[in-house]
Design brief:
By secondary structure, the chain is an alpha/beta fold. It contains 14 helices and ten strands. Helix 7 (187-196) packs parallel to helix 8 (213-222) and helix 7 (187-196) crosses helix 12 (297-313). It starts with 9 loop residues before the first helix and ends with a helix.
């Protein structure tokens, strides 16, 4: 393997850590253009069989390797790419006017770019294979660009050496929630779901950064403060320890790529309750968890509470979901993804 580097300044690197900063795309486009010239020189000197554009998964900046493919005839592969078309606005109840306006604008821009983005369309049409990071993206590529893409989530799972745990039949039900306290992660849904249940031995363990104060106030108003354990920001090792002690991983996010924390839960034999959307909707199947459909906050709270109640009262089901995680780990490993990618390469190059 040979690596060719295209570094950016410390200033740009610091700016790019601010997710959501629109300046990022201006700098990223410049970086991609320079990378194109590096790639063109490599292709001039060496025999190259495939050009694979493997970016951060956002579709907005497809790079320029498709252009090099058109000039050289070298087959082009793009992805995994995340091309979800809209944020589900129904889940912004209670969000600030600024947040709502920002996401309405973002949804409008996203749809326009998917329909009319020239480089996006050229990259998709030039590719021998487009890999979608989620089923949402598969549907978007079909809807807006009229192409069939292949599903491959952008992250993988590690095979676990964690020992399987006994699921207590009573007197303990620990639910783990992990994420930032922002509008995407929907901690409010987790709190409201717990408030609908009438089990004094449930504990909702909340891990992550951000402003906890509004959510602590909500927990107080819902009368569940005694059922909540606020861990704040903790180390990665501590998250793994909490996963190994919990009964259920409760993931309420409505806008993601493929969240690695869900794969970590599966690696720790921890059953998952989540929405059937984004990458988690592909990763979690009926063998390792339960998914509910996107609808609206009120319906989702009822659906989540009902499923928690079901698992609380059916510990053998919970145990089987935990046992099944081993098989799912194998299906989601990086090694399995490598095998799949090599298969696509061979199909492109030698027609296997």
């Amino acid at each position: 393997m040979h690596f060719y580097y295209n570094p950016v300044s410390d200033k740009v690197r610091r700016m790019c850590w601010n997710q959501g900063d629109w300046r990022f795309y201006w700098y990223y486009r410049k970086w991609q253009r320079k990378t194109y010239h590096i790639a063109a020189e490599i292709c001039r000197i060496h025999k190259v069989d495939i050009l694979h554009q493997l970016n951060m998964i956002g579709f907005r900046e497809p790079g320029y390797l498709w252009e090099l493919s058109e000039k050289t005839g070298i087959p082009f592969v793009w992805g995994p790419v995340d091309a979800k078309d809209t944020f589900p606005m129904a889940y912004l109840k209670g969000a600030s006017l600024k947040t709502r306006a920002f996401l309405m604008l973002k949804n409008t821009i996203t749809r326009w770019q998917l329909k009319h983005g020239i480089r996006i369309r050229k990259a998709a049409n030039s590719a021998k294979v487009v890999l979608s990071a989620s089923s949402n993206s598969v549907r978007s590529f079909k809807k807006y660009l009229h192409i069939d893409s292949l599903l491959m989530n952008e992250t993988g799972c590690s095979m676990s050496e964690v020992m399987l745990r006994d699921i207590p039949k009573e007197n303990k039900f620990d639910i783990l929630w992990v994420g930032k306290t922002d509008y995407r992660k929907q901690l409010v849904l987790a709190l409201r779901s717990i408030a609908l249940l009438d089990y004094s031995d449930i504990r909702l363990h909340i891990v992550g950064g951000g402003d906890e104060v509004p959510f602590r106030r909500m927990a107080e108003s819902l009368g569940i403060m005694n059922l909540c354990v606020w861990h704040g920001v903790v180390s990665h090792n501590e998250v793994q320890r909490l996963m190994q002690q919990a009964n259920l991983f409760f993931f309420t996010s409505v806008a993601e790529g493929t969240p690695h924390v869900v794969l970590e839960a599966i690696a720790n034999h921890l059953p998952v309750l989540c929405f059937d959307t984004c990458g988690q909707g592909d990763v979690v199947n009926e063998k390792v968890g339960i998914k509910i459909a996107l609808s609206n906050p009120e319906q989702s709270v009822e659906d989540f509470a009902r499923q928690i109640g079901y698992l609380y009262g059916n510990r053998e089901v919970l145990k089987q979901l935990s046992l099944n995680c081993r098989e799912r780990q194998l299906e989601l490993t990086w090694e399995r993804k490598v095998e799949t990618m090599v298969k696509y390469y061979k199909q492109i190059v030698i027609g296997e």
